[in-house]
Amino acid sequence: MNLWGGRFTGETDRHFAEFNASFRFDRRLIFADLQACKVHAAAIGRAGILDAQAVESIISGLDKIEDLASQPGFFERPEYAATEDVHSFIESTLVKLIGPAGYRLHTGRSRNDQVAVATRLFLRGEIDRIDEVMRDTQLALIELAEANSTDPIPGYTHLQKAQPVLFAHFLLAYFQMLERDRERLADARKRVNIMPLGSGALAGTNFPVDRHWMAAQLGFDDITGNSIDAVSDRDYIIEFASVAALTTMHLSRLAEDLIIYSTQEFGFIKLGDAISTGSSLMLQKKNPDSLELIRGKSARIFGHLTALLTLSKGLPLAYNKDLQEDKEALFDTIDTLSDSLRVTATVLRNIELNRERARAAAITDYTNATDLADYLVKKGLEFRMAHEVIGRIVVYAIQQGKELQELSLDECRNFSELFDGDLFQAISLENSLAGKCQIGGTSPDQVSSQLKLARGKLVGARK
Ligand code: ARG
């Protein structure tokens, strides 16, 4: 039976009914919806609209639905094929279980505030779960950094070798990005965790339900202050999708770096078998499919974010059925984000740094040229002049087919009298790294304290 019964005499067109139905996907909200239904039942009981016995019978019926819905394959039953949505499913099943008294549950409530409260409750739980997965991804970064805490790699700008950095420093850059993403997620959670129930269809409810009491029962921090907004607002979903988009954009950058570093040309990292695939034809190959998919999946989430914004932008107040389209975008955003985070953590736990190769790459191609310029600055030369001198030395070294550390002191002195025997120490890899010892720099001491701070941030709950 349709929920809108009396007003209609004709049948719904079959194709439209399928088009209209959302049960196939929104049944995912069932536990959140049931939770809110129980509190609503208790609230109308407390308001004196239902007697204690009716409340009890409704709540035990809802408990039974919860049990049923936990059974594997339950939703696959053919009789549910024609169900419109999760909300009508709960009502019709309740009536089947406890009789017409089940219809009383909907007193003082609309599906519009029902879907809003269920989606918020559901998303709150998912946010908490995702925060855990993000935290584990951060942990995987820290573990890899700790296992290679003093190993250098070349740092790049424009994908041209720039200066040596510690591999751990590179990894901690991604830790920081995820840290900000977790902060954004926690902030978004604050706006998710507001209760719309009690808004009715759009104008509020005629029944004296205690909204603050319901909010407390459901663990909401506050209640909405405008019923029209409460039933039509989905910006909390868009905000979550924005955080998801940023997070997967970060994961995508990490994936890109690791793909590059795993090529034969770079060869800084080795991918474990657990996260690579072979080629059906070229048997020498080991492909970084895991990383490529992490990079590729971000596109889906950007698509969902755009879809949600587009979906909302032209809607008149208050509820419109267009809003049903938010569900699949939200669910797929949640799943894609969680999977991408999880696979990223797995990749990080299955890669190995090729220390020798990364170190050799870090000290070649004049990555110490800036250190040589700084050497002259410390001897009293202005930086611009030093830059000029070192530029000429680099050109000379390239012509000689030598690295800067392979030049003799005499060769260097041809370019400036300021060079002394201590110059080779100054441009050594160890010195280059150790010199970057201001907070946030790549010196081993700094990185080691940043690693400790990072570990510290993972301890203790956030909310
Ligand atoms: N399935 C609907 C949705 O997701 C539930 C709300 C329906 N409300 C209505 N007035 N048709 O938006």
CATH topology of the largest domain: Fumarase C, Chain A, domain 2
Report the order of strands and helices: HHHHHHEEHEHEHHEHHEHHHHHHH
Helix proportion range: 55-70%
Distance between the termini: 43 Å
**CATH class assignment of the largest domain:** Mainly Alpha
What shape does the CA trace take?
elongated
Question: Radius of gyration over alpha carbons?
Answer: 31 Å
Second-tier CATH architecture of the largest domain:
Up-down Bundle
Overall average residue pLDDT: 95
Structural class determined from secondary elements: mainly alpha
Tally of distinct domains: 3
CATH level 4 superfamily of the largest domain: Fumarase/aspartase (Central domain)
Compounds present? Answer: arginine
Number of helices: 19
- The residue ranges in which pLDDT falls below 50 over 5 or more consecutive positions are none
Could you walk me through the main structural features you see in this protein, from its secondary elements to its overall organization?
The protein is mainly α and 463 residues long. It has three domains: 16-107, Fumarase C, Chain B, domain 1 (Orthogonal Bundle), CATH 1.10.275.10; 112-206 and 222-361, Fumarase/aspartase (Central domain) (Fumarase C, Chain A, domain 2, Up-down Bundle), CATH 1.20.200; 363-461, Orthogonal Bundle (Ribonucleotide Reductase Protein R1, domain 1), CATH 1.10.40.30. The protein is built from 19 helices and six strands. It has helices at 14-20, 23-26, 30-46, 52-70, 86-98, 111-147, 167-192, 211-218, 227-232, 235-261, 289-313, 326-348, 355-362, 369-378, 383-400, 409-413, 423-426, 429-435, 444-458, and strands spanning 152-157, 160-166, 194-195, 222-223, 269-271, 351-353. The strands form three sheets. The chain has a two-stranded antiparallel ribbon. Strands 3-4 form a two-stranded parallel ribbon. The mean pLDDT is 95. The site of arginine (ARG) has 12 residues, from helix 6.
